């Protein structure tokens, strides 16, 4: 029993339609997924989030597939169901194979275990690692 | 005022030394970082964690640099300080540039925002995305 | 498939009924929501939680609507589905409009992003902000 | 031993200075706090984050003080130290009194307890609360 | 609409069957629960996780029931639905009564509140508690 | 640079002193730790939290040591530094040995890994586990 109400294309204001059109064109798809239809209840949040997302996920120093896998890994760490499903789909579209997905899950699981152990043991940072992290 | 106590190589049992030797050889380094020295207080946890980690991070369908970046992204999502520092160092060693780190942080920040929005709006999963995530 | 079992009014002990009566009178409603019926399996937890909640949410330096919105924002940050739904209902009853809800969600999303960026960049606290936070 | 490196005004590019100038003017302050100086290592993230934040925190249906308190409550729920300190300072500047801060903390604490109890008891959503949350 | 696909015993490779047989024998059950059938899509993760879990949950300084209750408490704190259900079942099997479960939930709820208050008030560690935690 | 300000016994109001006296008597100690001195800035929160804690941690179906270890495990899962330190001290006082602490940390680490894997694989709940969790 979710509480979102979705704004469909046919009911959308010109401002919302312009964002929907940009989403469909940028992603080369012919439909809008529920995340955007939920945000469209508040057009400024829709526009700001889409423009931020488009900028962050654009080609850069990181490969688009790597960016999609990072996004998915963070969604798993935050246990967001919709996000895990939608970004699994997006990463598959960007080229993630089944084997890559299984390894990604193994890394997320392992990181969660060692993260928890570091917190449980309250490990102090090594001087050497600190310098390596800063590259100085 | 952390509460870890570290087991140094010279004070370690043969069982712990064997793990330390394997860590140094596998990673081609000549020192042991504090995480392992803290776990060495409980040798079964040291051995099990190192062996799991070595297996998970071994070459596979994912590139080693991509694995390190996924590990770092999860550590940021879990806000584990030691982990962020140590895996920033590890990812740099595996080839992550400054630009790649900045983009990785932007993806983590953006994923945190959209994950929160999905939860706040309680977005329902799209049937199409569900099928795409399952590839059926 | 949730695992709660609910204690209905007609099956409740006098101790539990006394809490149920106080909830209905304090909130001016004629029914008990599932949260309380689940806690009633352990009457000391029911009584203690209701009395704490009643005290914390009572009129004080903060406006009741602001308190409800803070409760809702924390529930979103903790991604607790039942809590988001029930406190959305409570905040609406206390006067929250649709526009206020949309802005609240935008703040929660934005705070999640900047929180993640602060952790990712491991930002040190400014001396000036520290003093301002302490007001000295 | 944080790993941020800060970009000071005197070392900043014109693009970064333009954002710094806008921050100082919008907030009527004569200095830049470390969060922005850390983001300035990656100018696109600095610019995008500041513009999003400015838009989200602008006057709207919610009072600016309420927005600041919501931001602070989310930061407490996310246990982000820098964020708690900086948004405590911001909320005080916007008019939050000591009593208001103490009540806010009590609400955050209480919400964390009841959120945990809801999860522990796996409480099902009431049909009535669902309808009230949707206002139908 | 979950995205796991399960590997049934009859379709499993000899490597996966060996793990399934060990799970059923170690736990004295005649079926495999979905967690393992999902991991079996990636046999190295199945084997590593089962072997780690078996080792961690084996008799030791802590009583098996206490270990199961600690596992359940962490799953509640992490708000993992499947985990809460499966470890409630496991802890019941190990001897947890209804009263013990209710008290466990009360402790998890209380810890969540005081954890949140500690973060909200940013409490400094007492020198005495630090020494007591280290036993020196 | 924490932002708490502590209320010392000598500066405390009679209302706060009464709580401090009860804490010292109940725990058989002659000092007050910082958590309570921080809460004492808001006497109703001090009183309510102490009374809840005293009730929750009182002898019941669970052994006091088990309760302390559950509290500690939740604090580790929530990564609350002060809480981990103070509840490690409390659990030691209640009889937790070094070996018990190491095993507790191993359970917390392992639970975090399998919790993350459950979320990553989006595992569906087994009908049998659901019935076992409900005991029907």
List keywords for this structure.
69% helix; homohexamer; AhpD-like; 136 residues; 2 domains; mainly alpha
How would you describe the overall organization of this protein?
- 6 copies of one chain form a homohexamer.
- With 136 residues, chain A is mainly α.
- Chain A folds into 2 domains: 1-58, AhpD-like; 60-136, AhpD-like (Up-down Bundle).
- In chain A, 69% of the residues lie in helices and 0% in strands.
- Chain A is built from 7 helices and no strands.
- In chain A, α4 runs antiparallel to α5 (81-93).
- The longest helix of chain A is centred in the C-terminal third of the chain and has 24 residues, at 98-121.
- Chains in contact: A-B, A-C, A-D, A-E, A-F, B-C, B-D, B-E, B-F, C-D, C-E, C-F, D-E, D-F, E-F.
- Chains A and F meet through α5 and α6 of A and α5 and α6 of F.
How are the SSEs ordered, and which strands pair?
The structure is a homohexamer of 136-residue chains.
Chain A: H1 14-27, H2 34-39, H3 43-57, H4 64-77, H5 81-93, H6 98-121, H7 127-134
Strand content of chain A: under 5%
Structural class label of chain A: mainly alpha
User: Please, how many domains of chain A?
Assistant: 2
The biggest chain-chain interface is:
A-B, 73 and 72 residues
Count all strands of chain A and give the number: 0
What number is the mean pLDDT of chain A?
Answer: 93
By CATH, the superfamily of the largest domain in chain A comes out as: AhpD-like
Distance from N terminus to C terminus of chain A (CA atoms, Å) equals 53 Å
Output the helix-strand order of chain A. HHHHHHH
């Amino acid at each position: 029993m979710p509480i979102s109400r979705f704004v469909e294309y046919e009911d959308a204001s010109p401002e919302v339609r312009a964002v929907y059109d940009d989403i469909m064109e940028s992603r080369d798809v012919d439909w809008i997924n529920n995340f955007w239809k939920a945000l469209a209840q508040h057009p400024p949040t829709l526009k700001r989030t889409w423009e931020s997302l488009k900028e962050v996920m654009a080609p850069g120093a990181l490969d688009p597939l790597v960016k999609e896998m990072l996004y998915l890994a963070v969604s798993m760490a935050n246990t967001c169901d919709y996000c895990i499903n939608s970004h699994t789909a997006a990463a598959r579209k960007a080229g993630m194979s089944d084997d890559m997905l299984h390894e990604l899950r193994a890394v997320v699981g392992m990181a969660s275990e060692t993260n928890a152990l570091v917190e449980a043991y309250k490990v102090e940072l090594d001087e050497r690692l600190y310098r390596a992290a800063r590259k100085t």
